[in-house]
Design brief:
Order of helices and strands: HEEEEEEEEEEEEEEEEEEEEEEEEEE
Number of domains: 1
Structural class: mainly beta
Distance between the termini: 31 Å
CATH superfamily: TolB, C-terminal domain
Oligomer: single chain
Strand order of the largest sheet: 3-2-1-24
Largest sheet: 4 strands, antiparallel
Shape: globular
Length: 333
């Protein structure tokens, strides 16, 4: 190899690279699965399914409630809230339900995990420091290095980390107390620079923010109680600067808990349009609604989550890229 010219070395490198990413006709393009919570077996557990609702897999089976799943950006892990320790707390498990690990158990209630885009940190809301008042925190994905991001006399809840890692959207009464509409706020990931994103929308009880993969928009649900004929939750999308608002659903029934697909073309959400509580999927503009889960009235399916990383991990060991498949070399683990 020492006798190969620099030009030849470069050519050999490019050839090897081309061989690594050449499209594989036997490979199936990986479609990240949707994880969600359901009480279909009598208590709340975590499930996953294909994007068309097929191949349902139960991931947890515990007598305590497991809910609010959050898929990690690469799809390898799932954070979730569980009451298996006596109080609602945060856990992480592999995407197949194995290796369940508790995070920073201190006896304080914790809810609503959301991953940083690099998968190293998890933000959540907790009653840890102020009794009866939720605040937002972040910690390493192993439960270490806990940081409090805000401090306010009213609840700050339901954080959602932006795709570039610089912002966190959350829900709060902070501009007017419990008599004021619930609004969507955005702050820097270190807790500074808070601003009310929905203050000028004339919407009330805004909740469950979810960033689009390109960071330009935030989907959320809003309950417009001041419009008697439309006293229900519907899905809206607002630009990240708060200047443009679009309504995506208009009944029938309530629509809540929106979450974008990894490519930003779809939104999964929960609807009670027929007296049940099932997960649906629609185009990002609100068109082409498809029902994914089919359970009878009285059964709830909630908290859909999708891996939001640009290259979610394929369980078969291959990663999708724009011009083919990146193949893992060596023996699979």
């Amino acid at each position: 190899m020492n006798n190969i010219s620099p030009f030849s070395r470069r050519g050999l490198f490019l050839l090897l690279l081309a061989l690594m990413v050449t499209p594989d006709s036997t490979a199936q393009r990986f479609e990240p699965r949707i994880v969600f919570a359901s009480n279909r077996d009598g208590d709340w557990d975590i499930y996953s399914m294909d994007v068309n609702g097929d191949n349902l897999v139960q991931l947890t089976d515990h007598p305590a409630s497991d809910h609010q799943p959050a898929a990690s950006p690469d799809g390898r892990r799932i954070g979730f809230t569980s009451e298996r320790g006596g109080t609602p707390d945060l856990y992480v498990m592999d995407s197949d339900g194995n290796n369940v690990i508790g995070l920073a158990h201190e006896g304080f209630s914790k809810f609503g995990p959301t991953w940083s885009p690099d998968g190293t940190r998890i933000a959540f809301c907790s009653l840890r420091d102020v009794v009866g008042n939720f605040e937002i925190y972040a910690m390493d994905a192993d439960g270490n290095n806990l940081t409090r991001l805000d401090k306010h006399e009213f609840h700050d809840i339901l954080p959602s980390w932006s795709p570039d890692g610089s912002k966190i959207a959350f829900v709060s009464y902070r501009d007017g107390g419990l008599n004021d509409p619930l609004h969507i706020f955005v702050m820097n990931a270190d807790g500074t620079g808070r601003r009310n994103l929905t203050a000028d929308t004339q919407l009330s009880l805004n909740s469950n923010p979810s960033w689009s993969p390109d960071g330009s928009r935030i989907a959320f649900n809003s309950y417009r109680h001041f419009v008697p004929a439309r006293s229900r939750n519907d899905i809206f999308v607002i630009t990240a600067d708060g200047k443009e608002l679009e309504q995506l659903t208009d009944g029938p029934g309530t629509s809540t808990l929106p979450v974008y697909s990894p490519d930003g073309t779809k939104i999964a959400y929960v609807s009670g349009r027929r007296g049940d509580s099932n997960i649906y999927i629609m185009d990002a503009n609100g068109m082409n609604v498809v029902k994914l889960t089919r359970t009878p009235p009285g059964v709830d399916n909630r908290f859909p989550s999708w891996p939001q990383g640009a290259l979610a991990v394929n369980p078969s060991g291959k990663l999708p890229i724009s011009w083919g498949m990146v193949k893992r070399t060596g023996n699979p683990r």
